[in-house]
Amino acid sequence: MNTAATSTKTDKELIDLYLEGHEHALESLINRHQDKVFTSIMMFVKDTNLAEDIFQDTFIKVLHTLRSGTYKEEGKFAPWVMRISYNLCIDHFRRLKRNPMVATSDGFDIFEVLKFADENAEDRIIRKETHHKVRKLVESLPEEQREVVILRHYAGLSFKEIADTTGVSINTALGRMRYALINLRKMITENAISL
After folding, report:
1. Which of 75, 100, 125 is a domain's end point?
2. Are both 79 and 113 inside the same structural domain?
């Protein structure tokens, strides 16, 4: 079975095909989710080499779980992989005894806050500077609020998925997001950042 044939399959179908011995199915599954997983790792660790290592470790864990037959398919493959990568990032920082940061050195935008049509050079400079300021503000949020902002606005996880990933209730995840947004608005006002 070729990659084109597997591209229309669901995650569950690809997992089943992989377990039947079709290696292309695993390749398609990884290709489908790699950008989202890698970028969310990068946002936590801010180091390309480390992010690549954690990305590899994530999919090694996925592979071992699939091969061992312990993966429970509930239509939640992507959130499950995101949870594995998140836990590996947290494990890394626990080992180093330091807190994760969220802004990346390559200028990746945490979430789109600006939309411009036909922007000129001056507009691009202003937008870049504004995004940089917003990233710095997000970095200054308390860790729990920062995590929810990343998982919600970049990784696109639902609040239930965020709750499962971080081991808190949905209401706690919602509360953290609410406080994060309140704090961001306050800091934006205090720093006179125009969006």
Report:
1. 100
2. no
